[in-house]
Amino acid sequence: MTHRKATIFTRRQFLRTLGVTAGALAAGPALSACGATALTAAPAATAVPPTAALTSVPAPTAVPTVAAPSLKIGVLLPYTDIYAALGENITAGMEMYFEEAGGVAGGRTIKVIKEDEGTAPDKALEKARKLVEQDEVDFVTGIVSSGVLAGVRDYFDSNKKLLICSNAGANALSRGAKTPYIWRTSFTNWQPNWPVGTWAAENVGKKAYISVPDYGAGANTITAFQNSFEAAGGTIIGVQKTPFPNMGDPAPFITELAAANPELVYCFYSGGAAVTFMKAWGELGLAGQIPLMSSGFMVEEDVLPAEGDAALGVRSGLHWALSLDNADNAKFTEAYKARTGKDANVFAVQGYDTGRAIVEMINAVEGDTSDVDALIDALGGISFPSPRGTFALDANSQAPKQHIYLREVQNVGGALHNVVIEDLGEIVDPGDDSKG
Ligand code: BEZ
Asked: Is 75 in the pocket of ligand 1 (CB under 6 A)?
């Protein structure tokens, strides 16, 4: 890898960068805010005195060099509420990659400024504004919730500021609400659900009941699963939307599912909501009684230990699995466990890949973030070997083109993990609503 570069800029490079970050330089160490972290000791961006002032020897025609200003990355992720653990995992994966890259991208020391996304779109929009307007970050990454992504979309679009989304799957951002300024390193909500609809109808049953949280990601889950499930001969016998972010007492919802006597239940829940649902599913005696399927977030490695045996046998679709057999996954999962003491999970993978995409993008523009179109060009062309397989972005949907794996929760040597049952092939978002 060619990530390590000296943090010395030529005068031309420095001035180019100065054009964008003049305010930030003026602010200097007062650069505020919660969660500002330089990943290596960043030298202050002060000009080096001309050589002639230090010696009597005339300066060669050498171009004076100055230390490059830090690369300021705004990170907007949930550190509170039901998706807090997702935010922590994405952050851990991203910071792990930045450290592997020596804390430097395009010759600039990486400085991360974190803000809490929470789950409320209006509050998250204020945080995005603060990162862009007060902290003067070079670009923003993060966003877990589809509702928040929809809420900040117009802000990034009208300000022509780059947002690299590391989770939220809102389909519209790859379709009718697409903007050149928002790209995803994660997935669209359509991707993990659509191929599983076909598989479920062919392998599990033809009568399904769907249960999802009542917000954008839940709605996307319904349309994607329903589209392919019905095309394969299945029937949706009911749809249940539970309150978001907190579903409250899950028992009435689960009782309603059981009473409908479906051949399978299909769900999307993640983080705290996934644990709430799965525990109640077990306590009400439904584990192993009604086949339960989901997008993989519901039974991902971050929540499995808390869900316990209720999750055994749940089958799900996702763009990664702990057991995925490739050299990059083996290296990543081992390093992540050594660093955090925990098994890796899909959110950590997304953070890690986002970190690498950022470093490669900034290297490609030699640290010059002044031209957002050049940044976007560089980002769109990035491809590298990842724990999920090859990471590459589809120019049409501005999201990864990636394989979806059908996984099953099994007891592996005394602990619950997702085991890959089948590769459902490379899945690329269609870029429109024709397939759900
Ligand atoms: C979403 O809101 O798009 C989302 C949240 C958690 C996991 C996956 C998707």
From this structure: no
